[in-house]
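Hey, quick one: can you model this chain's 3D structure?
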Amino acid sequence: MMNTETTKTVYACVHAMKMATVDHFETGCEAAGRYVMSDTVNITAETLPELVKKIGDRYGLEVDYAFLNPGRFSFNRLEDAEGYPPSDSERKRWERGKLTLYLADYDFSIEKRTVCDVPPAEFDTLGIQVEHFE
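Sure thing. Here's the predicted structure for all 134 residues.
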């Protein structure tokens, strides 16, 4: 029989979104951004730090600071047209107005879940024969 007393806490990222905006060194970001990614995901971990690391690993991100918005864990970084952080030389060219870089905003929907086994009696409501093993 399943143990109905087993519960655990799981942290989950259920949605990931990225929006990129052209960022000019002298004048800042252009008003209109574009969505470049919107994914329904299921990244889980036993702890919040482990979840943040898994998110970073999956999307190639170093999460060193973040913004907390209602229901969202967000951060941003400067990127080139391919979605990678610029090199030092690229950053210097951008500062001189010789290269276009983008401010990429990443938003992740994070949940904290309490998970437990389904009580065996609930399977009896399926309307099929269910054999219980002890």
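One thing worth noting: The two ends are 5 Å apart (CA to CA).
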